[in-house]
Amino acid sequence: MTGLRRRGGRAIALVAVAMLAAAPTAQTAPSKRDRPCAVPASVENLPGGTPAYNITVSAERTSCAVALKVTQAFHRCRGEGHSQCRRKVLGRWSCAARKIPGASLGLPVVLFGTFVCTADDQAVHGGYQENTPRCLGAASRDPLRRCANPTSTVTPDLDEVEAHALDDGSAGCDPIAALGACVFGVSERRATRRFALIGDSHTFHWRAALALVSQVEKWRGYTVAAGGCFFSAVTSAFADFCDQYYQTVLVWLRDHPKVDTVFMSSNADTPVAVPAGETYESFKFAGFSEAFAALPPSVKHLVVLRDTPASSQATFDCMARAEAAHERPGTACPLARSVALRDDLAVDTVKQLGNPRYQSIDLTDYFCGPRDCYPVIAGVRVNADIFGHLTATYMRTLGPYLLREIRRLQAGW
């Protein structure tokens, strides 16, 4: 495969914010104890010289409404050039921040920060993930805060991608910790929710984004996936061994009743042998519908993650030529949206069923514009290969936005 070599610097990997405070849950009444606060999307991406995703806020002896106002004031202070904001905000609140150097995490940049603001016996604590370098990867497509990254450097380089085509260091997943699945996220003792990630090889890259969700929300995740096998009652029409995978997933979920949420993704291009008298769409719809209904009652929520854009060999070849010509491969080598995106019939099934137990998340706009999808976005390679697998580096930059959408769904749970 002809490919691209990055210019300068190590691959930049965003990692889950394990060291930050506990996950937010909706609280508003004053309390004498520290309590987590829900962070709405309007507050999450706060003002500052560099975007900061404020993923944890807690209030001590005050209300969450006050805590969020103090948090916004703290980030405005940062945006005025006071990166640690060691001064008063909102009149009487004194703030101070600490950045956690990326070098201490094995990373070349500062990624994380914590802060505390106090007024008399009241306190607001928070943790945030900084988008450094500025506007890296998916951050450039955040609809709440547009930014531009003019870099022509591409990371990870092709050798790194080809060495880890399916996992790309996606997220640590321990195959020993749980029989029949690998596990990631927080420990069993700390977990507030347990979820499963099921489907074919297109689920693997989602684990990189869900790793951040797991750490911030204190969730424990299990990957129960098989390359080539999507979760459907008609997978045997694709391959006989996939029916065994389908049955295995159902048995595993029944045996693990603490798992109350399932995330599912699959290659929208996976073909099936359609019986006479059926259409491709109706046959796949029936398979997904039956599979969804077969989930055990312990699974309260099924969230289908819309399949991500495909690529092509021509795109990879174009990227190599663009680099040689010192052009930006992301804009020089787009793939038409109509080609890169296929109808995801699992998402369509969720919409047609209209059952509140089944929901979907579509993050296509973080990969594509109105007409084109891009192989490199703000310095980060998106596509790992021509089979629809994406780099974990890009998916890590997508983590805050997946978290945002999950929290939007949680508001109705």
Q: How would you explain this protein's 3D organization?
A:
- This protein has 413 residues and is an alpha+beta fold.
- It folds into two domains: 35-130, no CATH class; 145-410, 3-Layer(aba) Sandwich (Rossmann fold), CATH 3.40.50.
- 28% of the residues lie in helices and 21% in strands.
- The protein contains eleven helices and 18 strands.
- Strands 1, 2, 3, 4, 5, 6 and 7 form a seven-stranded antiparallel sheet that branches. A seven-stranded mixed sheet has the order 8-9-11-10-12-13-15, with helices on both faces. A two-stranded antiparallel sheet has the order 14-16.
- A hairpin with a 2-residue loop joins β6 and β7 (122-130).
- The chain is globular and about 75 Å long.
- The N and C termini lie far apart (46 Å).
